[in-house]
Amino acid sequence: MIKVTKLNGKTFTINALYIETVESLPDTTITFTGGKKIVVSEKEEEIIQSIITFYRKINVLGLRDIEEGNDYEK
Asked: What is the pLDDT of residues 12-70, one digit of tens each?
């Protein structure tokens, strides 16, 4: 889950696993796999970094272990 801020200043949390695209149009627009879109105040790069951090935290695709040099498939 990542925290984002609506343009009105209200913060809320979204599930990053359901994010399909993040675009700057010029406001940052997040599109979910179901087609719903939200506009947030964070920059596109911030959202992408938050997604990467979330994926590492939940160990999606073994990102944490691969990047830390832990190869358990030896």
From this structure: 999 999 999 999 999 999 999 999 999 999 999 999 999 999 998 998 866 555 556 65
Q: Is residue 30 part of a domain?
A: yes
The answer to whether position 58 is within a domain reads: yes
pTM for the model stands at 0.78
Residue 10's domain comprises 2-67
Closest CA to 54 of 22, 16, 27: 16
Asked if residues 30 and 42 have their Cβ atoms less than 8 Å apart, the reply is no
